[in-house]
C-alpha cells in the first residue's frame, strides 16, 4: 500500500520547483511562482486518471470527507449511513458538519451490507457513505439503487482504494462524490493530503470555496474576493501537492506491483483448505493494497494471527482487536467523549452504540486477517513470505 517506499527524482524535482520559486501556497503570488501550480496540476491529473470533471485537493482525507459533505449541503440533523469497519475519520467528518453517523453492518466484502443499509434509511437520511476498505469496492450498484429510491447522496470513501474499479469505473467516480487520502501510509502520498472528486459542478464550486474560507476565487486579487457562504481552511500546500504530482504519475506502476505481489501470496494460500478470501463484488477489481482472508472461526483466526507474527510475517492485521478501524474499540464514540459540549440535537439523535448489536459484523471481523502488500519486496522476498505464511497457517488449521 505505501507510496512512501518509492520516493525518487521526480518527487525531488517537483519539490525543488516549489522551493526555488518560494511560493509554498497554492493560490495567488502569480508573478513569483515561475509558472508552477502544483496543486492545480495535481487536480488536473486526478480528473484525467479518475475520469471525472472536477477534483479539489485539501489537507487530508478527513478534510476531503468533511468538505464533500459540506459541499453537498449536509448539516445539522442529517443522517449519514456508514459502516462499522472503517477508520475513525468517517464519523469524525460526519460529526464535524453537525450530522449524525449511523453505523451499519458489513458483510464478507468487508464493506457495507446493502440489506442493513436499506433497513437504516429514515426520513432524516441524506447520505450513504460506503468505505472501500482495504483496497476493494463496496456493493455499489445495490447501494446506488437504495440512493435512487430514497433520493440520497452516494459519497464514496475511497481513501484506501485508489486505483480500484467497479464496472470499469475508478472507485470514487461512481457516486455523487468520492474522497481520497494521500496521507503518509496510503497507496500514493503527499505526506499529508486528500482530494474530493465529482462530476457535479455545484459541489465542485462549493468545495473550492469552502476549503478556502468561502473565498469565491474570482479575479486576481485575493484580498478583494467575496464570500457567498462561510467556509474553513482545509487547503493543501504546494509542497504537499508537489510530492503528490510525482506520485500520481506512478500510481499504475504501484498498482501493477501490488497485483503481482498479492497474486503470489494468494496462490500460495489457495492451497490451504479452510482459507477463504474476502469477497469482491461482481464487476469490481481490487487495487491489491491488502490481501484479506477468512479462517473458519474466531479462535483459529486469533491463533493464526499469532502464528503469522511468530513466523516473522509483519504487516498482518487482525482488525477485530484494532483500536482505529472497528467499532468494538471505539469507546470515545460510544461515550461521545468530546473536549467541549456536544450540541443537544446531536446528543439526542446519536444512536446508542454501547447497546447496538453488530454481531453480524463481529462474525465477519472475528475471522478476518489482512496482510499489507508492500511495493519494495523483491520476488524472492515475496516467495519467502508466501512460504512463511503457508507454514504458519498450516500449524493452526
Ligand atoms: C486514511 C483514511 C482516511 C483519512 O485520511 P487522512 O488523510 O489520514 O485524514 C479516511 N478514511 C479511510 C478509510 C482511511 O483509510
Strand order of the largest sheet: 1-9-8-5-4-2-3
Spans of at least 5 consecutive residues with low confidence: none
Total number of helices: 14
Largest sheet: 7 strands, mixed
CATH architecture group name of the largest domain:
3-Layer(aba) Sandwich
CATH topology of the largest domain: Aspartate Aminotransferase, domain 2
CATH 4th-level superfamily of the largest domain = Type I PLP-dependent aspartate aminotransferase-like (Major domain)
Q: What would you call the structural class?
A: alpha/beta
Number of domains: 2
Helix content: 25-40%
Following the backbone from N to C, one meets helices and strands in this order, namely HHEHEHEHEHEEEEEHHHEEEHEHHHEH
> Kindly state the mean pLDDT as a whole number?
96
The Cα radius of gyration reads 21 Å
What overall form do the CA principal axes indicate?
A: globular
So what's the CATH class of the largest domain?
Alpha Beta
Head-to-tail CA distance between termini? 28 Å
